[in-house]
Structures are given as C-alpha cells and as structure tokens.
Amino acid sequence: MEKLFSYGTLRSKQIQMQIFNKVLTGTSDQLLGYKLKSLQIEEEFGMADYVVAVPSADSSDPIHGVAFNILASDLAKVDIFESNAYKRVQVTLSSGIVAWVYIENK
C-alpha cells in the first residue's frame, strides 16, 4: 500500500470514482515547505483553473490536504489523470508519513 497526498482535485469523491472506481480512505495531513500556485490547464472545453504545489522559500509554509491509502497499481492511473504540468515526487508529510505528491513539473 502506498500513500498519496492530495491538496486538490483528487480529494473529490466523484473524481476518485472516475479514476479508481472506488472512494479512497485517508487522513488529514500537511506538506511543509511548499505553497500553492494558480495554474491554467487546457481541457476539452477550454481552459480550467487548478493549483499546483511549488517549493516555498519558507520551510514552515503548509499545504493542507489528505494522505490517501492507494494501491501501487493505482498510481499509474493518477499519472495518466494528471497533466504533464505535474510530476510525482515522494515527500515526508508533517505527520512523518512518506507519501507521493504531484508538484509543478519544471
């Protein structure tokens, strides 16, 4: 079992059902040393507004989200769902849990 930290779209039960065909379980957590930045992504019907995590100059800056339990095989589904504006990296959350998170792909 893997951990996936989500601060945005993946927290939606509707999106979880669309990607995994199930609702994920998880716990509230924080990612320190990052901040959220606005991002526009072109979708089928035009541009849509999202946020992306980027490193912060302040190591105490928090991003609030949820650490979900996820199967390793389901990570590939999320890789397909996320646009190429994001990349998946492993981080340690404020709780000490090691999790995957999608950050800005530079």
Automatic annotation (TrEMBL):
A Pfam entry, by short name: GGACT
GO molecular function: transferase activity
Residues annotated as transmembrane: none
Keyword Mitochondrion tagged: no
Gene3D superfamilies: Gamma-glutamyl cyclotransferase-like
Keywords: Transferase
Coiled coil: none
Every Gamma-glutamylcyclotransferase AIG2-like domain range: 4-104
Name of this protein: Gamma-glutamylcyclotransferase
Phylogenetic placement of the source organism: Bacteria, Pseudomonadati, Bacteroidota, Flavobacteriia, Flavobacteriales
